[in-house]
What we know:
Elements: E1 3-13, E2 21-30, E3 33-38, E4 49-52, E5 56-60, E6 62-64, H1 85-96, H2 101-117, E7 120-127, H3 138-149, E8 152-159, H4 178-192, E9 204-207, H5 215-228, E10 231-236, H6 240-250, H7 254-260, E11 268-272, H8 278-287, E12 290-293, H9 295-300, H10 308-314, E13 318-320, H11 325-328, H12 333-348, H13 355-369, E14 386-390, H14 402-408, E15 417-420, E16 423-427, E17 430-431, H15 436-451
Parallel strand pairs: 1-4, 1-5, 6-7, 7-8, 8-9, 9-10, 10-11, 11-12, 12-13
Antiparallel strand pairs: 1-2, 2-3, 5-14, 14-15, 15-16, 16-17
Helix pairs in contact: 2-3, 2-15, 4-5, 12-13, 13-14
Amino acid sequence: MAKKLIKNAETVITMDEQRRELKNCSILIEDKVIKAIGSNLDVSEDIDEVIDGAGMWVFPGLINTHHHFYQTLTRAILKVQNVELFSWLKNLYPLWRNLTADAVYTGTLIALGELLKTGCTTSVDHHYVFPKNASGKLIDEQIRAAHKIGARFHPCRGSMSLSEKDGGLPPDSVVQNDEEILKDSQRLIEEYHDPKPQSMCQIVLAPCSPFSVTPNLMKETAKLAREYGVQCHTHLAETEDENEFCLSKFGMRPLGLMESVGWLGEDIWFAHGVHFSDQELEVLKSTGTGVAHCPVSNQKLASGVARIPEMMEQGIKVGLAVDGSASNDSSDMIGELKAAFLLHRITSGIDAISCRQVLELSTRGSAKVLGRDDIGSLAVGKSADLFMVNKNRLEFAGCFDPVTALVTCGNDHRVDLTMVNGQIVVKDGKLLNIDENKLVDKANQVAKKLVGVES
Length: 455
């Protein structure tokens, strides 16, 4: 087995059970897992690679609990910069119906590349757009891209079955029927889902939202997922428009609708959760249902501010997420830490949230949301997922606390090194497994075709 040693790091922020922050610390990695951690390690084995930790801060890999990778190809489009969610979607669906397998593969590489370069080692992606003229195996293309770039991946087989003609929001060109959705969901689980520790791919079933799928699809999806022991994910309580839609069409609020179709429990998590009532927070807590917090997206689309400090205080499972690149325009995981930290201070007061609590959301919290106990902290037996930041950079001059510095300082969130499952995938701030310049050129070509811009 390959052995690596991170030697004499300035500080290792473990996020372990004791939340230890260790000075002059080394980490011994054997194959995919951490074998030892501490000062003055007795390393008698032959080491294949020594990584100099001098002047480095080491953190657990960040975990992104909600995204839409394909949206990296439709960023900063002028006409959707000043509209809220429903209008935003209506304007972008005509572009997304042009998605191809090549576009999905390229967009996945772009998004995962940005994430890896900002310390994210595990990411969810919620892909729900399956144009009628595109290959049916779009999730396969995402899995292929994640394998190539070296990221730990939780692909969500999304779906939309309720088109405009049936009272939903999406056009008919991007919806599928229940039978083909469920058949492909089963295929993906059987072909790709790996439940074992250190797994690099775990399938999630993820109908898009209450305004784009039928209650029957929600019920059947949850039934299928539980037969196979996989998790379920969807958007919920993102906007007041969604509340009004659900009340008008189903006679209940979004969370009540989820309860009626069997979508509560330890194996369920919702993206956004901005507009939950006091009673609904109690339901989330009592059922162990999780929430993916998307602070930048919620601000950009003026969706509102999720009650994250209250959720954390009540013990509700909460993870952090960047959300889609067309509603965030970035896959910057460290930037999301800062956004969450500042947002809740301005809305809930100076004691609402700390830098360490924000880091906890994006590590241990996100791991719990995804139902994983092998990632989210640096400890013996855990997956070797981590990132390293050189403290001797301009933006960290005068900094004394590494966690506060990570969250609040600097305007360049690129890390110096990222490791996933014991493999280095970012070194000196650069991706190792792909040519970034060629990828950017390819993405720009694909994006122009997708949006209809002439070269």
